[in-house]
Amino acid sequence: MALIVQKYGGTSVGSIERIECVADKLIRFKEQGHDLVVVVSAMSGETNRLVELARQIDTQPVPRELDVLLSTGEQVTIALLSMALEKRGQAARSYTGAQVQILTDSAHNKARIREIDDRNIHADLAAGRIVVVAGFQGVDEKGNITTLGRGGSDTTAVALAAGLKAQECQIYTDVDGVYTTDPRMVPEARRLKRITFEEMLELASLGSKVLQIRAVEFAGKYNVPLRVLSSFEEGEGTLITYEEEEMEEALISGIAFNRDEAKLTIVGVPDQPGIASAILEPISDANIEVDMIVQNIAEDSTTDFTFTVHRNDYERAMEILNKISSNLKAREVSGDNKIVKVSLVGVGMRSHAGIASKMFRVLAQEGINIRMISTSEIKISVVIDEKYLELGVRALHETFELEKVS
Ligand code: ADP
Ligand code: ASP
Ligand code: MG
């Protein structure tokens, strides 16, 4: 019998009513003859509520204990959903990550899945049960509870689908697929019928939170057919696939944006070997991830060095730069945490020139100043002021005619 792994996100299990709807839906799938492994998130808002509780004790809580706390959100949902199934006469069994076992490394708050013990799951499926697994969590070798980073239930689902060789991994959420951009920002955004793993990976990495990055990576690596669909309405959703020869390549498949950005500049440092590493080493020693980096051409034998970090790391990064700036003989340190990154993504860019210049022209016409630029084979990203985010995304969506994508 064909096995399907399904994942229901926070909104899809956000109330008792929603959980009952999911249970009804699962019964229908079961009646169609599918074996089902179901991964659920915490009820919507719950993980944020727990994070806030922790913050009231300590703004930087001990990572191990934060995981113990956050994992409780998903434990509530697996129990409620299993009860709802049993009430309908459908045998079901819930498992926390540790019970499965979903073995991870020990990197609390951002653990990676290493191995999944699927013996219990196979036995339950053979007995006709629906298996309900808590997303977002696992256990390390020593028995510590770990979590996989925000949005991690997607990754739990894909990892289970890979391990169990499921026919498909279906991610049920509050939109009916992957859109040309976040439909909450641009109402004209269109659902894509398919998108390549490569493009989806770029979109996820550049800020489209519809799928966790690792889930896409995992699905690509293990060739798991992955589909994003709505838990509220019927439809075929968006299939994430490999690029095929005959696939007509859209020039641009989507626009991603990221509000969690901040930039820092160290002004007037001597233009000499070793400067870049002298600036970035203390930043990376503090576990701060650097995204874009730009160094100006030197004038008067000095140069400016700019980079971006996650907005949460802005103050810490600024402190570090202020500390090292006199040693580096820098003129000054400046920064801006009201910036965003907007990116165009599309495999079609490989074979088409002129996309970057068109993008820059549109932004100029809207009076939007570009602060930084970075490109790769299938994406172009710009950093702009936060206040222009919506204007920029809408203008780009219109210029590249994404409302006509089908
Ligand atoms: P879940 O709780 O089901 O995991 P998420 O909030 O994590 O749901 O992801 C779904 C949300 O992702 C949508 O409500 C939408 O606002 C947002 N989103 C961002 N970019 C896109 C996109 N390109 N296509 C679809 N949804 C997107
Ligand atoms: N509940 C977790 C979160 O909000 C995991 C998930 O929903 O995927 O990030
Ligand atoms: Mg999510």
What features would you describe in this structure?
The chain is of the alpha/beta class and 406 residues long. 34% of the residues lie in helices and 27% in strands. It is built from twelve helices and 18 strands. The strands form four sheets. Strands 3-6-2-1-9-11-12-10 form an eight-stranded mixed beta sheet, sandwiched between helices. A six-stranded antiparallel beta sheet has the order 14-15-13-16-18-17. A hairpin with a 2-residue loop joins strand 17 and strand 18 (379-385). Helix 2 packs antiparallel against helix 3 (63-87) and helix 7 (197-205) runs antiparallel to helix 8. The longest helix has 25 residues, at 63-87. The radius of gyration is 23 Å and the shape is globular. Magnesium ion binds next to loops.
Q: How are the elements arranged and paired?
A:
Elements: E1 3-8, H1 16-31, E2 35-40, H2 46-57, H3 63-87, E3 92-95, H4 97-100, E4 102-104, E5 113-116, H5 119-126, E6 130-134, E7 137-139, E8 145-147, H6 153-164, E9 168-173, E10 194-196, H7 197-205, H8 213-221, E11 226-230, E12 238-241, E13 254-270, H9 275-285, E14 290-295, E15 302-310, H10 314-325, E16 332-345, H11 355-365, E17 372-376, E18 379-385, H12 389-399
The structure holds adenosine-5'-diphosphate (ADP), aspartic acid (ASP) and magnesium ion.
